[in-house]
Amino acid sequence: MTPLMSVSDAAEGAEAGARSAPVSWTDADVVARIQELEESMRAAMFEQLRLIAEAECRGLFGEHGARSMPAWLQGLLNIDYRDARGRVAVAHNVEDRATLHGEPVAADLPATAAAMAEGAIGLEHARVIVAGIKKLPEHARCHRLAEVDSMLAGWARQMPPRELAIIAERLRYLLDQDGAYRDEENQHEARELHYTTARDGMMVIKARLDRETGAKFAALVEPLAAPRPELDGEKDPRTAGQRNADALGAILDLAAGSDEMPRAGGQRPHLTVTVDFDELKRGLDRGDEDGMPGTLDATDRSITAENIRRIACDCEVLPMVLDSDGIPLDMGRTKRTAPAHIRAALLQRDGVCAFPGCDRPPGAPDAHHIVSWIDGGPTDLSNLVMLCGHHHRTVHGQRWEIAVHDGRPTFTPPSTVDPSRTPRPGGRATPAQHRALIERHLPRPRGPAHALAG
């Protein structure tokens, strides 16, 4: 085992390090020293584990009034109980013992112990190995322990603990397929999802999903939660949590728009919003504190008319418009939703999102009414533009102006974004526009007659 420094040696080393500041070292020296210190710390941890095993053997925790070895170690080292329990578990498996006659007995996991003594692997690697072996069936632990220990310790030298845990689980699946299947069935029985509306109106979701459902969830969320490409050097300002929430919203949009969803009363799942018609017409300026909100009937929570105007552009949102006495005047008016042939034309003209510079992965784009449907705007190509969820909210929130010229939308930013309010072309350029752009920069080739004359 690698010899350890005494306290005095460590102090002398620290003084020597102070005299030779790392700022004067070469890059190679810095890298080498980082590696050396990691190996030293790992070797020191291994020595501590052996002492922990000896302390437990002597029953020191009872002498100090502790109920267990992990509890004593937690107080002694000021570490979390989980960490203390993990160190004790590893110590049981990497200690060298002796028989009653003083004959040495190798550790239960000698390959893991040797790798730790060399500083080649750390405590977390050892925890993964111990936990993985503990989950093996009894016949594998009795007859193949040395083989499994050697394999896992060898892999631990080459990969981080997280990847090692995946390998250990796959090894368990290979050696105990019946047990692994029972675990999966138990996980399926333990599945749960709860949701509630918090006092501030936000939806709180808590779930534990079996591994198959969890894999489906991750496969759908990850591509939609990717950061948006940089625009003018600015990175996507959303946090990872916000990106995941936006991805879930996109998935819900896709599900709500699918013909595969079950119908209730002949209708696909939809969101019902109750709002005063006059408030919806006015649009509610941001500073208007007296404006009456609408109501999301599914959760009985309020929502501003400004946001209702945004979501009423498209999607399966069915506004219920009430008169002054609260009597429904109209329900649905689905004609404001772009039909399939118009959405196909918009996708051909604008792509998934017509906003300048948008490169969002395909999701559930909205057909935005340039002149609001509430204000009498028609549902036709000249009054529609395709927007992703993020830019749909941006257009409404920042009040961008949109116009369609020669079959291509143009976006004019507000003065808060661009004081000069220079219009920006949006949508997807057509092959004809590409050809015109090329012809402006390259002269047409000369015909045969010109070639002969030359």
UniProtKB/TrEMBL annotation:
Residues 406-432 are annotated as: Disordered. CDD domains: HNHc (cd00085). Pfam families: DUF222, HNH. Signal peptide: none annotated. Residues 341-393 form the HNH nuclease domain. Belongs to the Rv1128c/1148c/1588c/1702c/1945/3466 family. This is DUF222 domain-containing protein.
